Amino acid sequence: MRVAPIIPLPAVVEPGPAGAPGLARPTVVVPGPGVPARLAQVAAERLGRAAGAPVTVADPGTHDAGEPDPGTVTLLLDDDAGPAGSASLERYSLTVADGRAVARAADARGLHHAITTLCRLVELGGEGGAPGAGPVVVHDAPRYAWRGLSVDVARNFFGPTALERVVDLAADLRLNVLHLHLTDDQGWRIEIPSRPELTARGSGTQVGGGPGGFLTVAQYETLQDYAAARGVVVVPEVDLPGHTNAATHVYGDLRPDGVPTDAYRGIEVGFSGLSIDLPATEPFLRDVLGDLAAMTRGEHLHVGGDEVHRMAAPEYARFVELAERLVVEHGKTPVAWQEAAHAPLRPGTLVQFWDTNATDHAALVAAAERGTRFLLSPADRAYLDMKPVAGFPLGQEWAGLVELRDAYDWDPADVVAGLPPQSVVGVEAAVWTERIQTLDELLTMLLPRLLAVAEVAWTDPARRDWEGFRARVARAGERWRRDGVPYYASPQVDW
Ligand code: TNX
Predict the structure, then answer these.
(1) Contacts with 484 (C-beta within 8 Å, 6 or more apart), sequence order
(2) Sheet strands (E) in 48-160
(3) Which residue owns the Cα nearest ligand 1 atom 2?
(4) Relative to the CA of 306, which ligand 1 atom is closest?
(5) Which residues contact 327 (CB under 8 A, 6 or more apart)?
(6) Less packed terminus of the chain by CB within 10 Å, N or C?
(7) Which of 470, 449, 374 is nearest to 9 (CA)?
(8) Residue 383 CA, closest ligand 1 atom number
(9) What are the residues whose beta carbons fall under 8 Å from the beta carbon of 138, sequence distance 6 or more?
(10) 307 an active-site residue?
């Protein structure tokens, strides 16, 4: 049997009725009642790209005008969609039979996923290379509700065009969060309307020596729209109180001596910081977090909190409390890196685990007992800026080498011993860009390893298997070669 190159592997894939035809080449998307026009439009664009021929959108209402033509892709909102008993908000079903495809989902989220799955089937083609897709029935829902990719646009800047490519990639893997690390020592990458100096004077540097850059409010909004139309939410991160040299370079009053720090192009961490008792600090945080909350559509706002090496624990705890409070006052839910679990967090704050070199997990387990929920980004599995092999020209290796199989063969439930399974809300891959400068380099670090993390985040571990996965990765490689997409040709795959 041919391998359907679907990554992540869906929960239930059944062969279509024997002898029945599959989908002819998709020609028209028919949105059912309540399906947003933009969703249907983007579905048609994506299916058209997969089929190599244009797909149009039918007028609303066409769907009940008799038997649909072959090549029709119908999108329906239907609470009964998904695997039996699934309550996931992202559940969907997809039936390919009798010349057409029907996608059903509880809401828009599942429809995005159904379209993604159908794109893969259409790329594979029908029996004997015919255009279209073979007959099949899929019922699917994710294991974890938060499936993310974090991209560091601060060390080296990546602008709207690159980030749209990253969103496409995320959507193709049924990931639903793009986390942007927007500020760090090397640059401030997001316009803050009440503090225009931050980008005017804090964004012109980056590690690679290039010109830096930042997202304007308008670009950030456009990116969120683009992502939303593909089922992806943007989660912005302003890293506090460490990783703040770009801010202290702009504002000397954020430093005890009142002197602005020098711009920074190196790759050390842990040297910079704010001071909670300076009069300028709280107004700065209010302006930044308030503006960012106002321009962010999603529920979450990440306040960093990592690698604060020059601040005593009590001041750090007060900092975390203030950042959380400001985020909550602006109607958002805070997210913070794992170090914040050492502070007395609000129960609603999400904690993101990353540091696999820190082996004392008592604070994390204690926080979970108080109701804290976790996002898992174990660096030795999910940090895709780690080199896959020694001597690789890109990336770092402080957490070890992360080959494709390392990114695949792990269970989020085992990452932090003692964490109750229900406290884990999701999995996020991360790519830090100290040693990554171009979109091609970024893609080389993401592909194929992001496929592995995406499958870990989506698919039940009982259904995952390395041999099947690597065969599907090889199919994806055919597409990347055809489309000129750069990737790391891991020796673990028979390309
Ligand atoms: C650790 S992950 C960091 C980043 C670095 C990354 C490099 C985290 C919360 N902090 O500042 O860029 O390692 O891999």
Answers:
(1) none
(2) 56-57, 72-77, 92-97, 100-105, 136-140, 146-152
(3) 354
(4) 9
(5) 289, 293, 301, 303, 333, 334
(6) N
(7) 470
(8) 14
(9) 10, 12, 13, 14, 92, 93, 94, 95, 114, 117
(10) yes
The whole-angstrom separation of Cα 22 and Cα 17 is: 9
CB atoms within 10 A of CB 370: 11
Closest CA to 134 of 229, 2, 224: 2
Q: What separation in Å is there between the alpha carbon of 383 and the centre of ligand 1?
A: 9
Q: Which helix (H) or strand (E) holds 440?
A: helix 439-446
> Which pLDDT does position 380 carry in this prediction?
98
Q: Residue 206 in contact with residue 195, Cβ under 8 Å?
A: no
Cα 298 from Cα 229, distance rounded (Å): 13
- 339 Cβ below 6 A of ligand 1: no
Ligand 1 neighbourhood includes 385 CB (under 6 angstroms) = yes
- φ and ψ of 257, to 5 deg: -85, 0
In the predicted model, what is the mean pLDDT of the chain? 95
Q: Does 77 have pLDDT greater than 90?
A: yes
Domains and CATH numbers, the chain: 12-140 (3.30.379.10), 146-464+479-483 (3.20.20.80)
Average pLDDT (66-90) is: 93
Pocket test for ligand 1, best of 237, 271, 338, 432 (most atoms within 8 A of CB): 432
383 lines ligand 1 (CB under 6 A): yes
Q: Cα–Cα distances in Å, from 458 out to 377, 425, 473?
A: 14, 12, 16
Locus of tokens 């999910």: 382
Residue listed under structure tokens 């020694």: 390
> Which residue CA neighbors atom 12 of ligand 1 most closely?
432
Read off the pLDDT of residues 399-445 as tens digits, 9 standing for 90 and up. 999 999 999 999 999 999 999 999 999 999 999 999 999 999 999 99
Contact 431, 149 (CB under 8 A): yes
> Does residue 1 have a pLDDT over 60?
no
Q: What is the pLDDT of residue 19?
A: 75
Distance CA 407, CA 391 (A): 19
Q: Please list, in sequence order, all residues whose beta carbon lies within 8 angstroms of the beta carbon of residue 132, skipping any fewer than 6 positions away.
A: 22, 23, 24, 25, 26, 51, 71, 122, 125, 126
pLDDT of residue 171: 98
Residue-wise pLDDT tens digits, 157-171: 999 999 999 999 999
Query: How far is residue 229's CA from residue 345's CA, in Å, rounded to a whole number?
Result: 34
Closest C-alpha to 412, from 145, 46, 228: 145
Burial zone of 163 (CB within 10 Å; 0-12 exposed, 13-18 middle, 19+ buried): buried
pTM over 0.85: yes
